[in-house]
Amino acid sequence: MKKLVILLGVALVIVVAIGVGFFHTKKNTTSTTTIVLGSQGTDTAVWQHIAASQAAKKAGLKIEVKDFTDSAALNRALADNAIQANAFQSYAYYVTYNKANPKNQVFALGTSYIQPMGLYSQRYRAVDRIPEHATIAIANDPAAESRGLKLLESAGLMTLKPHAVDDLVTPNDIVKNPKSFSIKPVVSTTTPALLHDQGVAAVAIDNNTAQQAKLNVFKDAIFHEKLDQNTRANVNVIVTNKQHQHDQNYQKLVTLYHDPTIQKWLKKYYPGKMSVEKPISTLAK
Question: What are the protein's UniProt keywords (predicted)?
Fold first, then answer.
């Protein structure tokens, strides 16, 4: 009887050991997908946080984040598969790039956020206070320049030629400029410094650059974009290349961005990035 008890005990230990070993083997063989993601500015800091999060680990993603200073280089690197995803561009920028690069197109996985562009001034606290013949600075890259001009139109400072929401406009599209404002295109990263330039009355600054300069678009801007159907082209998208456009692991990047724990962190540190979780098709309408 004692021998039987001992044998049963030994058998139980063996079964438990095998079960534990199987569990650990199964746990340790869980696949992890490595994705090199390019970004810039505050978006780089956001994705570095996401990459180090428990949410990313649970999703089975290892995200390596690369910071870029040249926006154009981000899509080129993606098309060449030097990176496998990027998160920096608006839907309007994405559409414009694909039209110009039909052989090296990139593919949107989903939406991430929208952050309103603001008009800032150290000298005037309302748009109607900006005097005639004043100089207003806007960023000089095509997407930001267009967005800045549309911001000035929505503020009632000028009128542009009729255009679709997704169309890029230039200073040549200004048809009414009642106060004869001078538009000064500048490099986007220099826009916050121009707030201290006595020759510049106001500056249109994208929210990514504004946040780096510790500006709060809802508190510091004298006017900012309204978040509505007319600004849908400014929603940011997470993008991949042709090789990975149908890979479900890459779709996890979108889900991960909108994870509640990530959104809680974003609201604390980057409140200007307002989450947008909509199908890409809604931006094209």
Answer: Lipoprotein, Membrane, Palmitate, Signal
| CA distances from residue 233 to 69, 143, 260 in whole angstroms, order as listed | 22, 10, 25
Q: How does pLDDT run across 107-153, given as a tens digit for each residue?
A: 999 999 998 899 999 999 999 999 999 999 999 988 889 999 999 99
d(CA 198, CA 152): 20
Domain boundaries, the chain: 33-115+232-276, 118-225
- Classify burial at 187, counting beta carbons within 10 Å of its beta carbon; exposed 0-12, middle 13-18, buried 19 or more: exposed
The CA distance from 106 to 207, in Å, is 24
Q: pTM for the complete prediction?
A: 0.71
Q: Do domains 33-115+232-276 and 118-225 have the same CATH topology?
A: yes
Planar angle of CA 83, 67, 261, nearest 5 degrees: 90
Question: What's the whole-number mean pLDDT along residues 96-101?
Answer: 92
Q: Is 132 left (phi over 0), alpha (psi -120 to 50) or beta?
A: beta
Angle at CA of residue 38, ends 42 and 104, nearest 5°:
130
| Integer Cα distance of 151 and 147 in angstroms | 6
- Contact between 102 and 242 (Cβ < 8 Å): no
Residue holding tokens 């994870």?
259
Q: Which fold has domain 33-115+232-276?
A: D-Maltodextrin-Binding Protein; domain 2 (3.40.190)
DSSP string, 36-94: EEEE-THHHHHHHHHHTSHHHHHTTEEEEEEE-S-HHHHHHHHHTTSSSEEEEEEHHHH
- Taking only the tens place, the pLDDT of each residue in 34-48 is 999 999 988 999 999
> Which is the CATH superfamily of the domain at 118-225?
Periplasmic binding protein-like II (3.40.190.10)
